[in-house]
Task: structure prediction
Amino acid sequence: MLIDELLQAESWGTVQERWIPAIKEAIALAEVEKLIELRGRFPYSFENSLKQLKKAEREFVRNSLK
Result:
């Protein structure tokens, strides 16, 4: 999974272009725990990435991560 690569990365810059596809994949598979872990590890990048998701995807993330 792409999100696993992000979680194992030492720095957000090395995987920057993979953020959106990884978050979309995690949403499709309902991997809420991994989204929570990703947000905790890279909060700024995670929140900025949400801006590029579709409205339904953003709502899923926001509702799941409350």
